[in-house]
């Protein structure tokens, strides 16, 4: 009897420790996610608060990028919390959430590509910038970006139709919902790898081309040195952001490889660190780049952030 009660106590203690670990992980990752979401939502509101932001092409492109990053951050963290809570979804629900995540994941590098080309035209062809980069052309570029991303999702859906779902005992998943678990066949895996390679290589080449083009143009006597230096730094930050987004796509396979090498405690700490740095931070980097460096956005953004923090304090004092 004493052995039985002791084993039950050990099992209960082990379950309590696991529950405490899950709660701690959820809290440690949800807090920065909420902060980043608040900053992004405030930035989105800022970009719709004045006509100058709605009538300038690079701010319209910034809004599109920021919207995709915000949705991607929210959906990614939702899937993360579902995995932490050890909830198993059905294949249709998991597929729907993953398709939305992949839709926004594709939009971000494509928008960075267009934004980099816009900076290149602004520095290298300043006299033709207003005729090339118009609101109409910007709207067409955004529609093409969303159409291309939607076509990628449609292709993924068609590849999933090859999987014999009718042979499954149930549509209930036996693994955590992730992009890896929804790759249900070799053709789907090959397509994902090929698409990611083409997407990020194209975006990387375009951003690098724009960056070196701005460097060459900065040596010209007719080019505004300050504008060229600012554009060069922005393009460099875009390249860093693209690399972080690319690294976030291999986040789960990397962790799966490390799980068999590291201890549970070390793996848990590394998981939290990489998740915040690789999955969450790149989605907020755009707000930090433009919110701090852009002289037009910064005062408006700071005003909205201060109002958001001061209003609750004023209401509480009353």
Automatic annotation (TrEMBL):
This is Odorant receptor 131-2-like. One of its GO terms (cellular component) is membrane. InterPro entries: GPCR1_Superfamily_Member, GPCR_Rhodpsn, GPCR_Rhodpsn_7TM. The lineage of its organism: Eukaryota, Metazoa, Chordata, Craniata, Vertebrata. Signal peptide: none annotated. It is found in: Membrane. GO terms for molecular function: G protein-coupled receptor activity; odorant binding; olfactory receptor activity. It comes from Parambassis ranga. CDD domains: 7tm_classA_rhodopsin-like.
């Amino acid at each position: 009897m004493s052995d039985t009660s002791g084993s039950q106590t050990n099992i209960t203690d082990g379950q309590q420790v696991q529950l405490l670990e899950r709660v701690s992980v959820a809290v440690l990752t949800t807090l920065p996610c909420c902060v980043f979401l608040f900053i992004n939502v405030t930035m989105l509101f800022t970009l719709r608060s004045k006509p100058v932001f709605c009538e300038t092409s690079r701010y319209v492109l910034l809004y599109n990028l920021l919207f995709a990053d915000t949705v991607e951050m929210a959906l990614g963290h939702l899937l993360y919390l579902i995995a932490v809570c050890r909830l198993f979804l059905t294949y249709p629900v998991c597929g729907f959430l993953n398709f939305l995540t992949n839709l926004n994941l594709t939009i971000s590098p494509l928008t960075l590509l267009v934004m980099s080309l816009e900076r290149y035209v602004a520095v290298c062809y300043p006299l033709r910038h207003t005729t090339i980069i118009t609101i109409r052309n910007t709207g067409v570029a955004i529609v093409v970006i969303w159409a291309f991303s939607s076509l990628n999702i449609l292709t993924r859906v068609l590849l999933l139709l090859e999987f014999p779902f009718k042979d499954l005992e149930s549509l209930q998943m036996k693994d955590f919902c992730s992009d890896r678990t929804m790759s249900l066949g070799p053709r789907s895996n090959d397509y994902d790898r090929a698409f990611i390679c083409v997407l990020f290589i194209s975006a990387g080449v375009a951003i690098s081309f724009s960056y070196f083009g701005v460097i060459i143009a900065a040596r010209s006597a007719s080019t505004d040195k300050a504008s060229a230096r600012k554009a060069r730094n922005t393009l460099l930050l875009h390249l860093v952001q693209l690399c972080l987004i690319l690294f976030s796509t291999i986040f789960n396979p990397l962790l799966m490889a490390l799980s068999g090498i590291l201890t549970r405690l070390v793996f848990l700490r590394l998981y939290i660190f990489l998740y915040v740095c690789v999955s969450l931070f790149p989605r907020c980097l755009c707000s930090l780049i433009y919110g701090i460096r852009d002289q037009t956005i910064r005062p408006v953004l700071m005003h909205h952030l201060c109002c958001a923090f001061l209003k609750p304090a004023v209401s509480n004092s009353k």
